[in-house]
Amino acid sequence: MQAVSERLFSRKEVSQHCEPHSCWVVVNNTVYDLTEFIYKHPAGEDMILEHAGLDCTSVFQDVGHSKNARNLLAKYKIGLLTEEERTSTVQT
Predict the structure, then answer these.
(1) What domains appear along the chain, each with residue ranges and CATH number?
(2) Which contiguous run of DSSP H or E holds residue 15?
(3) How far apart are alpha carbons 24 and 9 in whole angstroms?
(4) Which of 22, 37, 88, 90 could form a disulfide with 17, with the two C-beta atoms 3.0–4.6 Å apart?
């Protein structure tokens, strides 16, 4: 049985999803579609929209999100950055 390969996105593709109707972010080289979560975010939609289309790994880590928040984020995963565009420093 062969593993299903992850969908890959470039940073340019992610950057095109920076609006409330299509909001993607990158955290730790993983691409998330937060469109349906924007208005559920406890800190408000502005926090997510400010980083829409961007790599917000450091912001996500700096806030100190809980394990529950990390588990919730996982539900919105749509793929990974392409190999050549990944950062070598993945934060936990």
Answers:
(1) 8-82 (3.10.120.10)
(2) helix 11-15
(3) 11
(4) 22
pLDDT, residue 42, reads 86
Please answer whether residues 21 and 14 qualify as being in contact, where contact means their C-beta atoms are separated by less than 8 angstroms.
no
Instruction: Name the token pair of 20.
Output: 């409330």
* Distance set, CA 57 to CA 4, 37, 65, 87 (Å): 25, 17, 11, 10
- Encoding tokens for residue 85? 């565009």
Q: pLDDT tens digits for 4-21?
A: 678 999 999 999 999 999
H-run or E-run covering 78: strand 77-81
